[in-house]
Amino acid sequence: MMVLPYEQHYITTPTYADDLSRTIGALQQLQVLMSFSQNPTLADVAHLVLSMQQDFGSSEPLENVIQALVGQHLTSQEARRLARRARQEALV
User: Fold this and answer.
1) Whether the predicted model's global pTM rises above the 0.70 cut
2) Concatenated DSSP letters for 38-89?
3) Is the distance from CB of 57 to CB of 68 less than 8 angstroms?
């Protein structure tokens, strides 16, 4: 599907006036991102954070965690593409 320039949605980084506003914004973003759960709770957030801490350590910078996860995602995408290409070639 082709997306025309006028159909693209541009996301701007919100600006927050104070710590409370930043906290509210962060929790709202987590709520949207965790929408797989009917009504995400602080326990769900804590579980996610604890899982990340077990995988990466509690003092790992967020940027490093993000980069590692992006790398894992790209690796899995590449594996799926190669598998799909192999299936297509097998059919030919």
Assistant:
1) no
2) SS--HHHHHHHHHHHHHHH-TT--HHHHHHHHHHHHHHHHHHHHHHHHHHHH
3) no
